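Data availability (excerpt). The following record was deposited with the supplementary files.
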Amino acid sequence: MAKLGKRTRAAREAFAGKENLSVEEAVALVKANATSKFDETVEIALNLGVDTRHADQMVRGVVGLPNGTGKDMRVAVFARGPKAEEATAAGADIVGAEDLMEAIQGGKIDFDRCIATPDMMPVVGRLGKILGPRNLMPNPKVGTVTMDVKAAVEAAKGGEVQFKAEKGGVVHAGVGKASFDEAKLVENVRAFVSAVAKAKPTGAKGAYMKKINLSSTMGPGITVDVDNAVTE
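Predicted structure:
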């Protein structure tokens, strides 16, 4: 068995015997033990009582974190003419049409969010098998297929987070950086949990939100009391 480093041992000792903490306690613990040389991301994982194989139990949505993610989002936009110019002016990193499609087909995917105007969807649709598994496919349900390109780009750049239940009913996202103030991380966590709670699908049966786990990129995870985290 590999020998654990001093930092890892210290973190595990700090987390030992602790579970189902309040959001405030969990954030303080995770933040205090995020001691890597880089600014770690604070990550949340929610285990939901849904079966994503059924369409009426799929969970997906978008939430604007009040204090942003701390991540520099690279945004790609499929648009032509005036809408392409609007996207560029709003701060989009990549703007294109068939040329952008060909670049993606060639394996060049250097963006974190993909937005498209409705008229571009026949082109974007060819990329479903590439963008879909990466959760990058534009979708009107989360505001990434829209004529209001300016608002979509600004939202993505401003800390908007998309979420989607993965196989097993797990929703995972980054909710800030360890360098954030505790109060700002707490606010972001509560905003994210609230958004997932509001996205409860009609087909969900029994307990919807089963478990919440908070961690940093390199640190162990800690469970958060579900009732404390859900504020709706």
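Summary of structural features: The longest strand covers residues 41-48.
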